[in-house]
Amino acid sequence: MTVILFENCDFLAANKPEGLASIPESDRDKESLLAQLELKRGAKLYVVHRLDKEVSGVILFAKTPAMHRYLNDQFSAHQVHKTYLALVHGAIEPDEGVIDLPLREFGSGRMGVDRQRGKSSVTAYRVIRRCDPYTLLSLHPLTGRRHQLRVHLYSTGHPIVGDLR
Fold this sequence. Notes:
By secondary structure, this protein is an alpha+beta fold. The protein has helices spanning 33-41, 65-76, 148-155, and strands at residues 3-7, 11-16, 46-47, 57-62, 84-89, 96-100, 103-105, 111-113, 122-131, 134-141.
């Protein structure tokens, strides 16, 4: 169930459940968070950012073109600080650090590390708890590459638990 966490005259923040696309997919008959919220509100919303279908979390939608531009500018200027929680396989050492590995999209659409042709991609992490054989992490993407967190964690030998990609 979609829950609106905050709403004012400029934007709204909603809790996107796992398994629901942020925006309409190629199959327009499948539900999306955007479609649900527009139907519920009876008004157009503007997409500020997305979360993968398999991920739950807070997502913002602008209510006006002016707020859409403003929020997009905030994301572009890295004024928005995002935090993700992830349960990963294995025990990550040290307790905090930075994963700095360049990423690129391969022909199949798959993202991966490419030290020669990849774009700079940086993720800061902090261990919240170790519960053998897993580690709960707080993640802060300092860049915004597609699938950055899952690729960075996978490439260090600590894939996200339950991640099928």
